[in-house]
Amino acid sequence: MRYLIIIPCYNEALNIVKVFEDLTEFIGATRLNADILAINDSSTDNTEQVLRENKICFLSLPFNLGYSGALQTGFKYAIEHNFDFVIQFDGDGQHIPTEIQKLLNAQAENDADIVIGSRFILNSGYKHGLLRSLGTKIFTLLINMICGEKITDPTSGFQILKREVFSRYAKMGAYPRYPDANLVIQMILEGFKVREVPVKMQLRIFGVSMHAGFWNPLFYMVHMFYSIFMIIIQYGASMFHHQKSIK
Amino acid sequence: MNQLAFIILGFCLLVYILIKVKNKQFSERESLMWILAGAIVLVFAVFPGLLDFIARFLGVYYQPTALFLLTFFAIILILLRKEQQINGLEERVKELAQQNALIMNKIEKFIK
User: Is the distance from CB of A89 to CB of A15 less than 8 angstroms?
Assistant: First the structure.
């Protein structure tokens, strides 16, 4: 099995080398057949130069496409190079490479299509803002109501995806701007097997998160509700069948 | 006099759009909608009774209000169409940017 670890980077010059070194160490120790690919989302700092100097394999987007656009580029690369699995990994130092093993184990045990690393199943020590943790709880509840499954951390970018899943994402005409609860719901309703596993995460080392400030999370919430509403309209019938099959 | 002013206005609009199309500054397909708008202005100017009829039909007592209402709906329709086109273009531009990144990666590997 071949794995591709994709790391979307936007202005991560200060974090990326450490992330890459830790990942390389993990791959060496576990002898995982994995490649690492950074996707430089048209950073305005010297991320590209740092990637080049450290001989990290990377793609460079000609202009900023945002987190989801960068991810999707990685999926397309994985298809072109015939990888079996994609591991999504953040470039800001939030994700801990050794925790990948937990995702791998969960994937193998359940033959899951998507495995999400969750900060909230066990107390991982990760602290969220009040608004965001409330938001996460609401989305967990929504996923449960719509799909009948418990996903505690739909915003987690720490995931393993099977080839069928990332092929689907790569070809999605409108891959969502925020691929979170909305996408989890859509994939469950499309019949993909989604599992969660508790992982530890740490706060980013340098720089600012894309969800920082007051307006960004607020806009995110409104956007996400709307996106879920659209999925309900689109997948109304399969929602009914899915809940029936669970019962 | 008022009617003549409107006829001139509608006529100018039509000529302006046709010149733009002729100079290839405006695609034929896109100009069709504007030609239609120009033609409607001209028709209303030549037959003001028509606007009267429409206003009465819509239950609007003040004639110009009916005109504003129609114009407003026409503009909303055009805006929606533009939004749809921008969305489509955004998707295509995104696809191109992604393909560009993938190809650049291949070229760099090839050069090495």
Answer: no
Token pair recorded at residue A112? 């899951």
Compute the count of residue pairs across chains A and B with CB atoms less than 8 Å apart: 36
Of B91, B94, B101, the CB nearest to A59: B101
What interface predicted TM-score (ipTM) does this complex get? 0.86
DSSP secondary structure of B36-57: HHHHHHHHHHH-HHHHHHHHHH
Residue contact B102–A73, C-beta within 8 A:
yes
User: Quick one: closest CA in B to A71, which residue?
Assistant: B98
Interface test with A, best of B89, B92, B94 (most A CBs within 10 A): B94
CA–CA min distance A161, chain B (Å): 20
Spatial distance between the Cα atoms of A161 and A24, rounded to a whole number of angstroms = 20
Whether the pLDDT of residue A162 is over 90: the answer is yes
A88-131 pLDDT, tens per residue? 999 998 999 999 999 999 999 999 999 999 988 876 566 666 77
d(CA B19, CA B40): 18
Q: Phi, psi (5° rounding) for residue A213?
A: 90, -175
Please tell me the distance in Å from B31's CA to the nearest CA on chain A: 28
Q: Which residues pair with A201 in a beta bridge?
A: A95
Report pLDDT digits (tens) over A194-232. Answer: 999 999 988 765 555 656 677 877 888 888 999 999 998
Report CA B6 to chain centroid distance, whole Å.
20
Distance from CA of A86 to the nearest CA of B (A): 17
- The 10 Å Cβ neighbour count of residue A122 is 11
Q: Which of the four pLDDT bands, split at 50, 70 and 90, describes residue A77?
A: very high
**pTM score of the predicted model:** 0.86
Query: Which single residue is written with the structure tokens 């969750």?
Result: A118
